[in-house]
Amino acid sequence: MKKYILLAIFLASALLITPNFSFGATSAEIQSQIQAIMAQIQALQQKLAQLQNQQGDDRAWCHTFNTNLMIGNTGDEVNALQIVLQKEGFSISSDEMAKTGGTPGVAYSVPANFGESTASAVTGFQEKYRTEVLTPVGLKYGTGYVGKSTRAKLNQLYGCGVITPKPEGAGYLEIEPSSASIAIGESKSFQAFYQPPMPKCPEGFACPQVMPARIPVSASWSSSNSSVAYLVIAILDCAEGSKCPGGALYASVRGISNGTADIKAAYKSPSGTVLTATARVTVGSVSSVPSITVLSPNGGEVLTKGKNYVVQWSSKGGPGPFDIFLVKDGKILGDIGFVGGVDSSSFSWTVGADPISNLYSDGAEYKIRVSNQNGDIYDDSNAPFSIVAAGTGSTNTAPKIIGIPAIPSSIQTGQSVSFSWNATDADRDNLSWSVNWGDGTGSVGACAIPTSNLTIGTNSGTNFTTFHSWSKVGTYKVQVSVSDCKGGSDTNTFNVTVSGASGTNVQYPNTQFTQ
Question: Which CATH architecture best describes the domain 172-202+210-286?
Fold first, then answer.
């Protein structure tokens, strides 16, 4: 603290002392003296920042991160990120850090840039706070990309007005999954993992910025409400018939009644510190358990950069708002969109307009993931699709729905109704259909291998017939889509009204009724 006071007094003196500008000095000499003063002030500010870091006063600096960051970015946001990473114990190459110069009024002559060492440090940061950054979005390893969940943790630790808690040196415990929704009578398994702390780097040496691997551990388990979620301890990591020291590696939770319960695990770390972690379990009836089902793109499509496509899904239990991610090999590459509303079902996506899909145009296999904001309820495309650059391949003509079913004037609850649609495709491509019934359910057909040069009328999927019944009275928005699995699609949307007691079967567009 004494260093701070002396340095502050010196800095104030430098600002208050009036330079000795003689009346005979030229403008060039005056400008030179101003530059010298500015350089001195910048040097003192840097020294003050260094002393603050040495003293560990995290309250002296804060920053709110509102921008996604990746390799190739430069500027103040990257500089702030690098400051945080250094405070967290990670090293940044001097080639990537901002550099001061002698230009008056310019803070940095060379801006900070997001390079490989910054990306490596971000990966280390993400794995250090794995349960809060990676696990909620289905990742096990850091990506080096600063997206929504990483920014949330950065702001929690260093957002303006936040006093940063010092990380503990004992590591931490986590439960996987961190939360779950199950129906009454269903069971869910949980497992405890110990994350050892980041090894300290000897003074004056550079160390690899990699968190140690997680270790599955035996823990003591408990449920906060056994009448809602009953806990069955499963000892699977010890010899049969022996008592497992320290608890059990797995715990199975069974839904008993509607409500929520916290499943807690406790573990004594090698340092002797008792670590705990908690997972939230929500139990509901089968119809109320939240779920998401991706309908489109659902596999086999070829999406062209610069074109607009509709991402569609159905959901139950109101799990929204929704995050839309681009996924490859089970790993999230980044978020491409956000849709508010608990029951939203579509997102308009211009491929390449977002910074994530703009990076990829190699035709490799990708999937879409639609997730709730906690990341514990999500679904991926059933099969991969491709992204290609504009101008790649031949021009594709989208299919067209031409046969639309008659809309029933009255449908009773529980009544099975048959709907049929017809479509044509100028390229004679095989067609795939999907339907969203407006009640949280839907279906989607798999894309067949696209086949060209077929005789008109022989390409599969030109007709689509399906059945559905609604369990509750109300008005439902039905949406059916046809796709040629090459990026071309067409959609038909209409409303149906459901009322009264249940019947047996109704077929449309035919006017035959069976009751």
Answer: Sandwich (2.60)
